[in-house]
Design a protein that fits this description.
The protein is of the alpha/beta class and 387 residues long. The chain has helices at 11-18, 64-74, 87-96, 106-110, 127-136, 151-164, 173-176, 179-189, 219-222, 225-228, 230-241, 346-357, 365-386; strands at residues 54-60, 78-83, 101-102, 115-121, 140-144, 168-171, 196-204, 246-254, 267-274, 279-285, 299-304, 307-312, 325-330, 334-338. The chain has 2 domains: 11-25 and 174-344 and 375-386, Dihydrodipicolinate Reductase, domain 2 (2-Layer Sandwich), CATH 3.30.360; 39-173 and 348-359, Rossmann fold (3-Layer(aba) Sandwich). The relative contact order is 0.17.
Length: 387
């Protein structure tokens, strides 16, 4: 079946499917066993001239900030300033990015005219408040997921985006910073397996309880497992199916195995029907066993009318050098695509260009907000069922 390039306006994406990509090798990643500190790195493919796009980092509460800043720098942006109220965090961050200048206040970043974007990984419940300040200062905001913990925060951000014209973009890393998932999603969207009927995501994570900060176990701060990890999965559902909304069928959360942390939800699941008619389900949990060499054996399954796709996102168990892989079958071929070595992650270059040109090619604001809106509503449904 010929591929129908629904995203043919982007030459890189058009070529991305036809290549036999090779992705992050876990043999070279010292942080692969810990999702909190995992940084996929990436091939440097600048989209702007050196020094022409400056950004800053703030609120270093989650270690995802390292991956966020690395990705922007590989796209040609330059990290100039960092601020965190905890000086030790800022110093540690500077060891990863020796060229960054530590400043003594958030205002030093917000008042700097050369800074066009602020990347941040605050405590989830505080991400919206920071984002509003950033946009009020005339800068774009790039936050770790989940971008909100309440629907009220989402509404405040929507209004601020309209008021300021600034971007409130989200680091949905399980697709945007994972070559296997990204490839599988674009392959599905190309029409290679026909119309999308169903998408399943299994998203186990390693808890690493002893390494987590106190706020991680307090629901008022992290929002719930579906709000948090689930936002990744709902973003994938929207992107792969081409949907713009969804109807929730059921949603559930539990604390199965951590009675010492009553605020933790270690298991969640949600079923939904997209407005395209596709059926979607995700399971998210904190039960990655110790012997697993990656922090989570994430899987993505996509069923279409003309074939199916499986993505093994972070490893391929059962093989000594089992790299992430995508398996693909349609009426014309059956193949495996393995991912080894550094990868180019096209979202980040597209995001930098969007911030320069005020376009929406990397991700629309509506899409970024809709993914988290569905996750927040799914969390509310699960909370109501549990109460």
């Amino acid at each position: 079946m010929p591929l129908k390039w629904v995203f043919a306006s982007d030459p890189f994406l058009r070529s991305y499917i036809h290549k036999n990509p090779k992705t992050v090798s876990f043999r070279n990643m010292t942080t692969a066993s810990d999702g909190m500190t995992y940084n996929p790195g990436g091939v440097s493919k600048p989209v702007v001239e050196p020094g022409s796009f400056m950004f800053a980092a703030a609120a270093l509460d989650h270690a995802h900030i390292g991956g966020m800043c690395t990705a922007l720098e590989t796209a040609g942006a330059r990290l100039k300033y960092v601020f965190d109220p905890d000086a030790a965090k800022a110093k540690s961050f500077q060891q990863m990015f020796p060229h960054v200048e530590i400043v003594d206040s958030l205002d030093a970043i917000l008042d700097a005219p050369e800074i066009k974007c602020v990347a941040a990984a605050a405590i989830p419940s505080k991400r919206c408040e920071l984002g509003l300040k950033v946009m009020d200062a005339g800068k774009d905001y790039f936050t770790d997921k989940s971008p909100f913990t309440t629907l009220g925060q989402l509404e405040l951000a929507k209004e601020k985006v309209k008021e300021t014209g600034q971007k409130y973009m989200v680091y949905y890393s399980e697709r945007l910073h994972n070559a296997a998932t990204y490839y599988a999603g674009e392959l599905a969207r190309s029409g290679a397996i026909g119309s999308i009927l169903q998408v399943l995501v299994m998203a186990p994570h390693r808890l690493s309880k002893e390494n987590r900060p106190d706020w991680f176990f307090q629901k008022e701060y992290y929002g719930g497992i579906i709000t948090d990890i689930g936002s990744h999965q709902f973003e994938q559902f929207l992107h792969i199916t081409g949907a713009t909304d969804a109807t929730l069928n059921f949603s559930r959360v539990e604390n199965f195995s951590n009675p010492d942390k009553p605020g933790l939800e270690d298991f969640g699941e949600t079923s939904m029907t997209m407005n395209t008619g596709a059926s979607c389900y995700c399971r998210i949990d904190w039960f990655t066993p110790n012997a697993a060499r990656a922090w989570g054996d994430g899987r993505l399954f996509v069923l279409g009318t003309e074939g199916y796709i499986e993505a093994r996102k972070y490893l391929d168990i059962g093989r000594p050098d089992g790299a992430p892989s995508v398996f693909f079958v349609n009426h014309d071929e059956e193949k495996e695509v393995r991912f080894e070595g550094p990868q180019h992650f096209p979202f980040f270059g597209a995001l930098v260009l969007d911030m320069v040109n005020r376009t929406e090619n990397a991700m629309t604001q509506e899409h970024a907000f809709k993914a988290t809106e569905i996750s927040l509503k799914a969390q509310e449904m699960a909370d109501a069922a549990r109460s």
